[in-house]
Amino acid sequence: MNSTPRVLILCTHNSARSQMAEALTRAAAAQTGLPLDVHSAGTEATRVKDDAKTVMSELGLSLDAHTSKTLWDVPDAQNFDYVITVCDSADAACPAYGGQTTRLHYPFPDPSGQGLERWPEVRDALAVQFGAFVEALKAGMAVPAGVQTD
């Protein structure tokens, strides 16, 4: 593994779940003092959804500078220690990575089109999962293999 682990979070459009997970993972890493190089991407690029920006701002995290991008827009796209998919479509479309990459699938429901009241639930579930991921890395333990429910 690199001295600073590289993490890629993939979703279909890189417009909501992967964007929120990227910001939450960076915040958790900063809070614990763990150096991480975190990126997100989609199998297709669209735009970052306003509802994602709204619910993240409730936590003091801004997605205003974030842009939707594909895997090929990410620096050194084939060199990640962890590739984490957050939707089934991205999991199925994820390209193959070499043996140095740990692939994880943490599926979360898409809150798009369900009203703003659904977004905090998904955001908070992402925070639990990616917080547990960061805590495990910080402690030198195995990262969670599946979605945390507590």
UniProtKB/TrEMBL annotation:
InterPro entries: Ptyr_pPase (IPR023485), Ptyr_pPase_sf (IPR036196). It comes from Deinococcus arenicola. This is Arsenate reductase ArsC. The keyword Hydrolase does not apply. Coiled coil: none annotated. Residues 5-136 form the Phosphotyrosine protein phosphatase I domain. Pfam families: LMWPc (PF01451). Keywords: Arsenical resistance.
